[in-house]
Amino acid sequence: MGALIPEVLRTERRFARLFVGQSLSVLGDRVSFVALPFAVLSIGGSAADVGLVTAAGLLPLLVFTLAGGVWADRMPRQWIMLASDLLRCAVQTAAAVLLLTGTARVGLLALLMAVFGVADAFFLPASTGLLPLLVPADRLREANALRGFVQSTGLVVGPALAGLLIAAVGPGGALAVDAASFAVSAAVLARLGTVDGTAATATAGGVDGGAERAERLGFLAELRVGWQQVRSRTWVWSGMLAIAVYHVVVLPSVFVLGPVLAEREWGGAGAWTVVVIAFGLGSIVGDVCSYRLKPARPMAVAAVAMAVASCQAAIIGSGAPVWVIAALEAVTGVGVSLCFVLWETSLQVHIPERVLSRVSSYDHLISVALMPLGLVLAGPLSDNLGVRPTLFGMTVLAVPAALTLLALPAVRHLPASLPSESESESGSGDGAGVGLGSAAEAVV
């Protein structure tokens, strides 16, 4: 039986506990993602109301993500995650009670989702920064692959579970299940105790526990330190730009134009569900590959994987039979998982631990802030140009943007592990060892 359990779960017990708690929470989130629109509709809301409630959960991410990154680098990250889980549990419990008692209103649900978004904004950077404190650097890729596996599995299992729950207990009952998942996650985080990184292998810049956290700059100055870490590494800022292009240009094909084309030409939601599930299965395969493969140049592989993933739009608009589109979308799912696991791991290995959450917050901000732009523009563009020309245009823009990463030596040559001490002290801005002491903080 032990051989069936990944080694990182057997050897890193605190990560194993966190993994179980977060796995249940992710499954609950997938249920909520499906249940929330039906919750709005169940109280007489319109499609516009569904958009309003969804946007209410997104806006706080744009406003508070950078603040979340600063606080996650100031305070114990597991306590920020714990507070976030407790708040999200309270929000989903309140929403469930309102729905189950027939007292829910669109405005109340929007307000609750806004609070949920604030909690999310603090949770995401803290979560990225916590992992290197629980897992040695040489196990980070495996840990991220397992986390990705849970996310991908949730894409397949979550909607099915949500459908069963909505049919059995209604949207309110489904949201209650999500609330329970946050309670479990909070209980696990509470049992972790104080995490200072002493059990983890040092990442770039070293893991130094609370000593360095005691010396604090002002809030804006700390944000500038995080930005210095982004712009001083070509592979980081170029990777963020490529990911932003994927979110703005490619994802609208999945969220907006794919369902439109399925409704018009494929026979409706059933055919689109087949494509979405196929993508989820491909993502699971990609996570398994990420766990087993050990590329010497992870960002180079991530760039190629993103180029493959960026073909999603053209595949959806290809006019091929649905089963062919589903099979090809599964291939892009492999690319998506490979890309993001290798990206997350590279950040955790090469960014100094004490600023990792701030760098992660810029990553989340760029992804989340620009995605609505693509979602808003996709519809009008397809109305003027046609759905298929728009989908092909998305691919023409996105694939070269991903491949451009390979033209950058900092991306092609970034190693999987830290350079030697002498290389770290050579002063290269694109290496792992950009100093964080007086040198980096002098920019503020």
Automatic annotation (TrEMBL):
Keywords: Cell membrane, Membrane, Transmembrane, Transmembrane helix. Coiled coil: none annotated. Signal peptide: none annotated. GO terms for molecular function: transmembrane transporter activity. It comes from the Bacteria. The keyword DNA repair does not apply. Its main location: membrane. It is a multi-pass membrane protein. It is found in: Cell membrane. The chain crosses the membrane at residues 50-72, 234-257, 269-286, 298-316, 322-343, 364-381, 387-408. One of its GO terms (cellular component) is plasma membrane. The keyword NAD does not apply. This is MFS family arabinose efflux permease. The lineage of its organism: Bacteria, Bacillati, Actinomycetota, Actinomycetes, Kitasatosporales.
